[in-house]
Amino acid sequence: EDYPLEAGAPLPPPSSLKRKILIKNKRLKPEVEKNELELFRQGQFVIEDEEKEDANASADRPIPPDISVEAPVAEVTLGDADTCVPTTIVYTGSTTNVHPWLSSMVNYAQPVKFQSFDAAEQKNIHHNMSSFSEPAGLNWLKTQAIEFVNYNKRQMSRIYPSGARANSSNYMPQVFWNAGCQMVSLNFQTSDLPMQLNQGKFEYNGNCGYLLKPDFMRRHDRTFDPF
């Protein structure tokens, strides 16, 4: 592996990710993921419904599976008590409610809760990324613009519209592009000025692939203040 998932290891260049799909999702803890994958391969992996069955419901009422798998797996029945007993995996929170196969496919886009730019720099985990709401992103730009740019040299960030935009309007994406944010999410259903700017910007590459940030926004020996 040229780009291992470990602290200090850089993200792979976009050119090496051609014809590949990146999945952005939280991963299970390594030991939990390994255990659940093994259970799944043995046909013993069961995911409990998040909604508990009503107390008056019949105990014989079948519970529909949460996940359907097209690949054939070993059939396990409750009657095969001598062979094996289905193991129930009980999740403790929504962030861990992920199928082990999906978890194992997450690599270079692992979302984490943002703490601070100093904490992110100290951890130096390039494949960790954070999402910022529009107001939060603007606040960080106003208070720590240079640190925000440096953060985006090392790892990815995603900006999304404020929940107060009930009419699906958009913010000006250029503000966050200037800080090097890689994923600036907009409401594509609204063809306003911000959306037109977005469409115009990516006309440079035919609305396909990516646009390379300027040299001074990528090099660690350069400092750039977007303001």
Automatic annotation (TrEMBL):
Keyword Nuclease present in the record's keywords: the answer is: no
Signal peptide as annotated in the record: none
Look up the EC number in the record and give it: 3.1.4.11
InterPro entries noted in UniProt: PI-PLC_fam, PLC-like_Pdiesterase_TIM-brl, PLipase_C_Pinositol-sp_Y
Q: Where are the transmembrane segments?
A: none
Q: Does the keyword Transcription apply?
A: no
**Domain PI-PLC Y-box: from-to ranges:** 102-218
Q: Name one GO molecular function term.
A: phosphatidylinositol-4,5-bisphosphate phospholipase C activity
Biological process terms from the Gene Ontology for this record are:
lipid catabolic process; phosphatidylinositol metabolic process; phosphatidylinositol-mediated signaling; release of sequestered calcium ion into cytosol
Catalyses which reaction(s): a 1,2-diacyl-sn-glycero-3-phospho-(1D-myo-inositol-4,5-bisphosphate) + H2O = 1D-myo-inositol 1,4,5-trisphosphate + a 1,2-diacyl-sn-glycerol + H(+)
Keywords per UniProt: Hydrolase, Lipid degradation, Lipid metabolism
Q: What is this protein called?
A: Phosphoinositide phospholipase C
Taxonomic source organism: Anoplophora glabripennis
